[in-house]
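Narrative of activities, Objective 1.

The group set out to show that a structural description can be obtained from nothing but a protein's sequence at a throughput compatible with the screening campaign. Below is one input-output pair from the validation batch, recorded exactly as produced.
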Amino acid sequence: RYTNIFADQVIQKAGPLSKRSRLNKWRPVTNDEIYLYMCLILYRGVVWKPTYESYYARDDVFTTPFVTKILPYDRFFLIDRFIHFCNNERISVVDCKIAKFKEVFEYVEEKFSALYVPEQNICIDESLMLWKGRLSWKQYIKTKRSRFGVKSFSLCESSSGYVWSSCLYTGKELTEKLSQHYSGKYQYVATNVVLYLLKNLLGKGFCLYLDNW
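Output recorded for this entry:
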């Protein structure tokens, strides 16, 4: 629904389109096509290539026939351009920094915690997902492999690395949210983060490992 709304907004603002414009091929996306799009995103994590275009290469050396059977070239890139999880026109200036994907992120996080019970040994640490685009809360951590990106705090199962709980670091916004959550009971940000991630695991015999943070 939101992808179709955003596509209409972009096309209307674009004005008259040239005959060669890919936007002329746009048609409302369906639920099934969203599933297929997500399928190809996950597929890229298994069969890695440097760009999305390379998955549609016709050369016998580089071809991946499975991808072309799932979604045609133009259809994939149109969905990729317009994929959206909210209506931009309903987001106000005072909304949180992750407003554009908050609903999806919180849903996934809830499922990760509800569907699996981790083993006894668990750990909490910060993680950095590579991101070089424009973002007001992008972080720089020189000790991380990515260095620039989106920082998060994650509670993981030590043996498998399964992410059981996670929260994105959006600066002051996150610290204030957690402080309000615990009514200012704890002085340090680290304390709030750890207790927030533990959720229903606290006091149930788990062994939590932390670094000096």
